[in-house]
Specification:
Shape: globular
Radius of gyration: 28 Å
CATH topology of the largest domain: 2-enoyl-CoA Hydratase, Chain A, domain 1
Number of domains: 3
CATH architecture of the largest domain: Alpha-Beta Complex
Structural class: alpha/beta
Strand order of the largest sheet: 12-11-10-13-14-15-16-17
CATH superfamily of the largest domain: 2-enoyl-CoA Hydratase, Chain A, domain 1
Bound molecules: acetoacetyl-coenzyme A
Number of helices: 28
Length: about 700
Amino acid sequence: MSTVVSLEKRGSVAVVCIDKPPVNALGRAVRDGLQQAFEQVRDDDAIKAAVLCTAGRTFVAGADIAEFEAPDFDASLFHQTLDMIEGLDKPVVAALHGTALGGGLELALACHYRVASPGTRVGLPEVTLGLLPGAAGTQRLPRIAGASLALDMIITGKPIDAGRALEAGLIDQIVKTDLLEGAIAVAEERAEQDAPVRRISEMQVDPATVPESLFQDARESLRRRPTGNPAPERIIQCVEAAVNRPFPEGVQVEARLFQECRESRESAALRYRFFAEREAAKIPGLPKDLSLREIRTVGVVGAGTMGGGIAMNFANVGIPVKLLEVKQEALDKGLAVIRRNYENTAKKGRISMDDVEKRMSLIQGTLSYDDLAGADLVIEAVFENMDIKRQVLGRLGQVCREGAIIASNTSTLDVDELARATGRPTDVLGMHFFSPANVMRLLEVVRGEQTAPDVLATVMKLAKAIGKVPVVSGVCYGFIGNRMLEPYLRETEFLLMEGASPAQVDRAIQSLGLAMGPCRMIDLAGVDVAAKVVQEHAKAGGLPDDPAYRAVVQKLMAEGRHGQKTEAGYYRYEDRKPVDDPEVARICAELAEEHGIQQRSDITDQEIIERCLYPLINEGARILEEGISYRPGDIDTVWINGYGFPDWLGGPMFWADTIGVPEIARRLAHYGEARGNAHGYWDQAALLERMVADGLRFADWPFDG
Ligand code: CAA
């Protein structure tokens, strides 16, 4: 008998229950167990109907994604189990709770009827893994829920709630009381009726659900927003097949296209990303029984863009926030911006006006540090300046209650120095939110030299609770993301001085799939902000002894070209559209002259990509060798969630493996020779050299076991 699937007889109904923590994924053991259990349902004359349910917090969350990596993976194994269940003449009722996703929903669709508890969500999110549903989901969902809704659900991957699923006929009933009892009642009722069971595979797609231009519009929308994800175009083909062909043929189309997706490099990258993100939340070496601190109230110092956005994260999940400013005027302005943000979200229909008021009532402004005394966590988000931050943290060290956690939202400064300023460094860490802080999912959690393990673990858990993707970084200039950004921006500026235009640099980088090239990115973030970061770095003695280093951003700032907000930066802006500006070309030519840099007209897109991104990867290797980051996947998680690196390339370190580390090393050496290496810009990380010598890939991490 299976250890993960049980069968219990409740009168004439067999209750088949999957119990495979954490999410009842449909791996081999579960499939085998289901096969056995439903063979018993088929063969036992005393059994008249069956209920399929799951133990734990959720229904089946999908196929076991880890199995897709096996070279001999065979999707037809799913079909065998699902077809066997659907083929039974005895009614089978799926009882859904939590989430029924991917292979989980496909399993439910192979059952004859579906009931769900309120709050259940169902969906086919395979597209987020570069896949399409491979167990006939593309064929059954349009038949039961209509082509239009099915296409939308499969192509966006977004789940729908039980209410919507009921409306669409995808589930038959919402059970508000005991789910299992409700499901058993439905099973008994169906068995008593003695009518033929309903098999979705025998249904036709309702033509009323297929608007004439459905597929054409879907393709057009893909053309407008191209992506490297191989699945969306193929998903359209599958749903088209569901509409136009008999079920068995549609299943064959799906099987072929699923296999193409699974074997693609892009899907491999997206699957890697799925696990990397979850792995990043794990901190090696922490005791398992560590008890965490409780966070019931939060304080935020600074009601600027960053502080306001940070406060919203907590209010959104019902945690009260005290928001501190020095002056009433600044506080009023900060609160007004928060209200406007919420109201805009309400206008888009994502929250109700009631929610706006509820959330606003959770954010209380204050001008007094004493009001922070009761908070369990206080995050400072004041101006990025060491002296100011030290003062604020010193004050927090005095007013915060014993055991409260104190965090700094610095993006570059030394967290250990800030921690010392509080006089209680074990309570301190960095929480580096990305702007806009209420939207961006990445959170770099900076572990100081003395940060207590329970402080770190508490903040990692809290980060997940507020919907962030947390990644731990050690203390260094810029942590993981901004540190790697530095060589990327350095080369961007050298390329501009050598004669490339901002549009050319951005185009090359964007052609790879990055959301935004470096010049547009700085124009958006603020040239003044970027230039001040360089100045602070210089004050801390961190810059190379090279007057040409980041000279462009300094010059643009001096000329008052602060980016999009002043309608001029790396570009000139016409109706918010960036256009190349001859003035910038002139500034860059002058700087080239001043610093003895030769201008040339033969800069290719490939050179731009290599010069900007290979040093970034090299810096990533240093971050690993210094122990700033635990794993390559953490670095990739930072770049995908914080810097718009395409997820279907897997992040810079995964991408490096696809190019080949030896090739990257060879090109770094080439540029060192071609450009000169007086300032060590092209020095290679010792780790990279070792990888080349030993034939290692980042995927082989950790190298020493
Ligand atoms: N396969 C393998 N492992 C899975 C998994 C899956 N389908 N879904 C979740 N897990 C694992 C996670 O890796 C994690 O493991 P660790 O604890 O070891 O890190 C654990 O389950 C818990 O997951 P989360 O941390 O994500 O927990 P959550 O409560 O935040 O979210 C969830 C739960 C909504 C189910 C989320 O895990 C999720 O979205 N899972 C993926 C769903 C999905 O994409 N399904 C489609 C799979 S592909 C498919 O089914 C193809 C097909 O058609 C045949």
